[in-house]
Design goal:
This protein is α+β, with helices and mostly antiparallel strands. Helix content is about 45%, strand content about 15%. The protein folds into three domains: about 120 residues, no CATH class; about 90 residues, Cytochrome c-like domain (Cytochrome Bc1 Complex, Chain D, domain 2, Orthogonal Bundle), CATH 1.10.760.10; about 55 residues, SH3 type barrels (Roll), CATH 2.30.30.
Length: about 280
């Protein structure tokens, strides 16, 4: 069937009560990355109109397969009905969805929800911290009292950060340009470096794609078109994959930025690196 025929057929699904449960499942399948972006959007638009408790669970079931742009739309849909909001919070509570995968905008909506129970549950979920990482960050607070050497920091940047970040015209555009965070407090930089999964933009989530030919690729989704996705790996190289060639696309729930940099960067090294970033 042509894409036009598919779009017309999608608009008819879920209208009859007798077939609604089956149609919700069909629409959920259409959200898979093998389908073009317009077809995915049409299926989501139709699901949003169906007042059925099964819809929330259907949207959550495919979460790990959604690209960043579709995730934003799905989160907005889930927040549109109270029952689906409860499903979303349940998924975060159980670990099916990482709290950091929910954008700050959507977190704010949950924290300001009209229902007090929702506000309280969201407050607990989004305040949760990795205790080991938190202790590590506290141990690195000494950085505030050390003197940094920007020249040594430049060498550390080139060894450890340049593959994924740009700074002062050097590096790759995989993660954020470090020049944009140069004016942030030291505490904020320590969290970003030592506990990268505490909070990050959804566009920096690491995905793994498996093609029908058996290739396995990993990286952030740098671009999406109706018929393809572009994965950018940690070295900055882009790989375009046709949706029709995709066997599977899953998110790791984690930032592409790795944990464990404390094994390489001791407090004085961290001080030097931050001095270079802020120079």
């Amino acid at each position: 069937a042509s894409e036009g025929d598919r779009l017309l057929a999608i608009r008819l699904l879920g209208r009859g009560p007798a077939s609604q449960t089956e149609d919700v499942s069909r629409l959920g399948e259409i959200l898979r990355p093998q389908f073009s972006a317009p077809v995915q959007q049409a299926a989501l638009d139709r699901l949003k109109q169906i007042n059925n408790p099964q819809v929330g669970e259907t949207l959550l079931t495919g979460w790990k397969n959604y690209g960043p742009s579709l995730r934003t739309e799905v989160l907005s849909a889930l927040l549109s009905r109270l029952e689906w909001v409860r499903d979303l919070l349940g998924a975060i509570q159980s670990g099916r969805i990482a709290a950091a995968e929910v954008s700050p905008v959507h977190q704010q909506r949950l924290l300001r929800h009209s229902e007090e129970k929702i506000r309280k549950q969201a407050g607990k979920l989004f305040a949760a911290r990795n205790p080991d990482r938190q202790k590590l960050i506290e141990n690195y607070a000494v950085v505030n009292h050390l003197t940094g050497n920007a020249e040594r920091g430049a060498a550390l940047y080139r060894q450890n950060c340049l593959a994924c970040h740009q700074l002062k015209g050097e590096g790759n555009s995989v993660g954020p340009d470090l020049g944009t965070v140069a004016d942030k407090p030291v505490e904020t930089l320590l969290v970003a470096i030592l506990d990268p999964n505490q909070a990050f933009e959804t566009k920096y989530i690491n995905y793994t794609a498996v093609t029908k030919s058996g290739r396995e690729l990993s990286g952030i989704i740098a671009a999406e078109t109706p018929n393809s996705i572009t994965l950018r790996n940690s070295g900055g190289a882009d790989e375009v994959i046709l949706r029709s060639d995709l066997k599977e696309l899953t998110s790791s729930k984690l930032s592409l930025m790795p944990e464990g940099l404390e094994t390489i960067l001791k407090p004085q090294d961290m001080t030097d690196l931050i001095a270079y970033i802020r120079k």
